[in-house]
Amino acid sequence: MSDSIVKGISKETIDEWKTKYGDLLMVTLGDEQYVYRSMKRFEYKTIMSNPDANRSFNEEKIIQMCVLHPQFDQARIHISKAGTVSTLVELIMAASNFGINEEPVKL
């Protein structure tokens, strides 16, 4: 029996991902568990540098890069519930320090 809290993923795999990517996060949307990581600045700039890309295209690239489990390919993206991709992107962006999580302190 696996010690992992993520169905279908061994503790060893989680540890390998942590070594490679740093902090990992998990969220359950509906009945599906998703493991994801934050995005580095150069990764963000690479995705955003495509002048022909639209928001939907960029969102799909972000989840394909940062969601480690389950892996997102075009088939999974197309059968996902309507809000899954956008919700995962919001969580990835928050983990990547986009937005304000704390109130600034007046000095």
Characterization of the model:
The chain is an alpha+beta fold and 107 residues long. The chain has one domain (11-95): rbstp2171 (2-Layer Sandwich). It has 5 helices and 3 strands; from the N terminus they run H-E-E-H-H-E-H-H. A 3-stranded antiparallel sheet has the order 1-2-3. Helix 3 (55-66) crosses helix 5 (84-95). The chain is globular.
Largest sheet: 3 strands, antiparallel
> Portion of residues in helices?
40-55%
Separation of termini? Answer: 53 Å
Q: On the 0-100 scale, what is the average pLDDT?
A: 91
How does the overall form come out from the CA principal axes?
globular
Arrangement of strands in the largest sheet: 1-2-3
Q: Count the domains.
A: 1
Task: Please state the second-level CATH architecture.
Answer: 2-Layer Sandwich
| Beta-strand content estimate | 5-15%
CATH class: Alpha Beta
Q: What count of helical segments does DSSP give?
A: 5
Unreliable runs: none
Number of strands: 3
Topology summary:
Elements: H1 11-21, E1 24-29, E2 32-37, H2 41-48, H3 55-66, E3 67-69, H4 74-79, H5 84-95
Antiparallel strand pairs: 1-2, 2-3
Can you give keywords for this protein?
107 residues; alpha+beta; rbstp2171; three-stranded antiparallel sheet; 3 strands; 46% helix; 14% strand
